[in-house]
Amino acid sequence: MARTRNADKSAQDEGKEEQVIEQPTANENTHDSPTESPEKKADTPSEGQKDAAAPPANDRMARFKALQARAKSATERNLKETAAESQRLTTDPALMNNLSRKHAFASHNLLKADTEAAGEDFERKRAWDWTVDESEKWDKRMEKKSRHRKDVAFQDYSQDARKVYKRQLRDLPPNIEAYEKDKLAAIERAAANGDLEIVETEDGEMIAVDKNGSFYSTADSTGFTDRKPDRAAVDRLVGDIQKAEEVRLKKRKERRGGDDDSDVTYINEKNKQFNQKLARFYNKYTTEIRDSFERGTMI
What we know:
The chain has helices at 2-43, 47-53, 57-90, 93-117, 122-127, 132-150, 157-171, 176-193, 231-255, 269-295, and strands at 196-200, 206-210. By secondary structure, the protein is mainly alpha-helical. The protein has a two-stranded antiparallel ribbon. The longest helix has 42 residues, at 2-43. It starts with a helix and ends with a helix. Residues 1-93 are annotated as: Disordered. Belongs to the SYF2 family. This is Pre-mRNA-splicing factor SYF2.
């Protein structure tokens, strides 16, 4: 029994010694932990830093409201543009032009009536809004327009050819650059041959003097026959001829009523209508005879 008690006591003493030995280890751990905590604190941001890094709720709300306002304004603008486009498509432009023209006529007549009622000259008062140059240009334009209106009807073939020639001149733009280039080359060539003499005036202007009268063209000059046109000019001439031929064939087809392959059996429009009326009633009797004539087997 005594040995057993001594053994138990020795076991208790060893347990106490182990506890005493383990306590410094715990204390060492407690001493080590303060050294590690600043690093952990440095690695993990504090609550104040989190609040400073994150945007405030007021700023987010302000941006959200700005986006909402922008979306609303864009929607309203698109709706207005859609309504305007729909109204423009539903409106007849010819009707609007007619209304504006009627409004202009009504304003003109109202102003004329008011001016005459006041005892003033309407044309004189109306001319106050224009300068002398503008008035002269307008008079020339009106005179030219009336003259062209009178020339629409066919008078003779010379007049018709003149109108065609003037129309072709309007459609033919002059090549000023090529003209100046050819002119300079001709002057240099004539000066090299001795036909021209370049004289400088007191003002410094250069004048070309024709010595023997062969440089400048006259009524008896034949130098234009030596000039060969370029390929572009020839192609343009061919295009004009083809266009004129197409117009002629189109008018011919219109005169024939669109049937260009049929035989011409009339001399004018009245005769054509009469022949068509005869064909409606008698073609069923004369078809075989006409076919026999065409085959040459008619007896």
